[in-house]
Specification:
single chain, alpha/beta, Transcription Regulator spoIIAA, 4 domains, 3-stranded mixed beta sheet, 19 helices, about 10% strand, globular, disordered N terminus, binds iron/sulfur cluster, Radical SAM protein, metal-binding, MJ0683-like, Aldolase_TIM
């Protein structure tokens, strides 16, 4: 990247009308993009502090002192040497510096901008001065694999749950799923990734097939107009397979390395019923940028229904929970009435999690459809009880209450503050497990009586309650990326109301970028009506 011919300043040159004590106003608009180019010219992903130092040289007064503190305290890194994810900087770094140096709102905003310059911005979206906008100039050497319009069109062909088997990058509820191929040999009888097949697995085969190379998957992600560097939660193989199968591990690991080498601090999730060796865990612990979470599923499901080896899986859960570099969630799922919900089952699962020192547990019910009924019957398996709605996980309030009663029994000798968090939603669990620095990225706090009633820590409740509405420019940048640049928008203290049709995936995309609830006008009216009649 070439340096500009003249050095821009964070504060701008002092003039008669504009004293040097008022720097940030000059950083908005076009001037800020020029400053960003200047600062990013010295970006080295292995050492971001020269960028901060370059920003410091352009600043004055309290802002200069705040930037000096970032360098002196290495405030872009955790003590383990990992980068603090960009999304967490406002809570972990900027808020404290703002208080310490009495920065006003504009100075604090400028500090955030300067620190964003110390992060890489690969792909078609985002620059330090406009993190949510499609780029007008692509990074040198980067060629998207298809146009934004072509990729958006392929997203429109996704299935009812968002899975895009054409492009293999899909906007799902848990984040953007990057899928390499289709198939999983573990043969869980309740697997819902069978696309209408009965006993024969994915598209007629349980064997993973048609893998993409990791380089191709990452290029697809970077080319996707819905992928925001450092913001979009990513799932690897979340929709079509199992990340740690021996056949898939090399691809999973390579993709993680590629994301890490790009300097991306996005949250990345891998959900597993498989295991990893100590050497493989060492690999994961060596990641510096990527903000990984591993979600280990265990619900004491009979092995006739869920074959992956339980003992090995639980040893792996115990082992990886002792890593100080990896976020680990105990996934208590699937819970299926009649299959794994006797009192003995419930106590056993909680005892298992207690023995493993689980910190964060996420509950989840079972999705069950007509083809599962045929499949279970053909295998001679017992059917789960309950009334299932297609595409929805079932976990009744009664079962949930019994689960929590068993929790209280098993953890009776543990002080409440030392008991694990128990959440209903994965996105909540991921926020809590990372230390409660950002609100739930799916905005579930818009319905607290439904979503927040288990054991979410007080600190996380406070963070969710304090979530700030976005500014309209950010919302506009995001709406442009889903082809609705002119949709009317109302931003209130509790939600962003978009006066246009939004698919559930578009709404998820908006919510996950804004970290704030988003509703269509009709949904907002229904929410208000429900509160009035409650
Ligand atoms: S407060 Fe509610 S929405 Fe926020 S993380 Fe906790 S359970 Fe989720």
């Amino acid at each position: 990247m070439s340096s500009p011919t003249s050095t821009p300043t964070l504060s701008g040159p002092p003039t008669v009308d504009q004293p040097a004590a008022e720097p940030p106003a000059l950083c908005s608009g076009a001037a800020r993009s020029e400053v960003a180019r200047h600062l990013q010219a010295v970006l080295d992903l292995s050492d971001p502090y020269p960028v901060v130092n370059a920003a410091r040289e352009l600043a004055a007064g309290a802002l200069e002192r705040a930037l000096a503190d970032v360098i002196a305290g290495r405030l872009l890194h955790e003590p383990t040497g990992r980068r603090i994810p960009l999304q967490e900087l406002p809570a972990r770094t900027i808020a404290a510096l703002t208080r310490t140096h009495h920065l006003d709102a504009d100075q604090s905003d400028t500090l955030g901008f300067a620190l964003r310059c110390a992060f890489a911005w690969p792909g078609v979206v985002g620059t330090p001065d406009a993190p949510y906008a499609l780029k007008s100039v692509l990074p040198a050497g980067f060629a998207p694999i298809a146009t934004v319009e072509q990729i958006a069109a392929s997203q429109a062909t996704a299935g009812p749950d968002g899975l895009n088997t054409t492009y293999m990058i899909s906007q799902m509820k848990g984040g953007m799923s990057a899928d390499f191929g289709i198939g999983c040999p573990l043969m869980c009888a309740y697997c819902y990734r069978r696309e209408g097949d009965t006993v024969d697995g994915y598209l007629g085969s349980w064997e993973p097939t048609g893998f993409l190379e990791p380089e191709d998957v990452v290029a697809r992600l970077l080319s996707h107009p819905w992928f925001t560097p450092h913001h979009t939660p990513i799932g690897l193989h979340m929709s079509t397979s199992e990340a740690f199968l021996p056949k898939l591990w090399p691809r999973t690991w390579r993709a993680l390395q590629l994301l890490d080498e790009l300097g991306l601090t996005n949250r990345v999730s891998c959900i597993t019923k498989y295991t990893l060796s100590d050497e493989q865990i060492d690999c994961l612990e060596s990641l510096v940028h990527v903000d990984l979470d591993i979600n280990v599923c265990y619900a004491a499901m009979p092995e006739s229904i869920e074959p992956p080896n339980r003992g090995r899986r639980l040893r792996f859960l115990r082992r990886i929970l002792h890593s100080d570099k990896i976020n680990v969630l105990a996934y208590y799922r699937p819970i299926a009435e009649g299959l794994n919900t006797t009192d003995a089952h419930l106590r056993h699962v909680w005892q298992t999690f207690k023995d493993a020192d689980a910190r964060t547990v996420v509950l989840g019910g079972l999705k069950f459809a007509d083809d599962h009924v045929h499949s279970f019957m053909s295998y001679g398996l017992p059917l789960p009880a309950g009334s299932f709605t297609p595409g929805k996980k079932l976990l009744t309030a009664g079962t949930e209450a019994r689960i929590m009663a068993a929790f209280d029994e098993v953890y009776a000798d543990v002080a409440p503050n030392w008991r694990p968090a128990v959440l209903k939603r994965s996105s909540c669990g991921r926020a809590v497990e990372r230390g409660s620095h950002i609100p739930d990225y799916n905005g579930h706090y818009d319905q607290p009586t439904t979503n927040c009633r288990l054991r979410c820590p007080a600190a996380q409740h406070e963070v969710c309650a304090a979530a700030q509405p976005p500014d309209e420019e950010t919302v506009r940048h995001l709406l442009a990326r889903i082809g609705k640049p002119d949709a009317r928008v109302d931003i209130t203290g509790t939600t962003v109301v978009v006066h246009a049709e939004l698919s559930q995936f578009e709404r998820t995309f908006l919510r996950q970028n804004l970290l704030f609830p988003v509703h269509t006008a009709r949904q907002a009216a229904e929410l208000v009506a429900a509160r009035i009649t409650r």
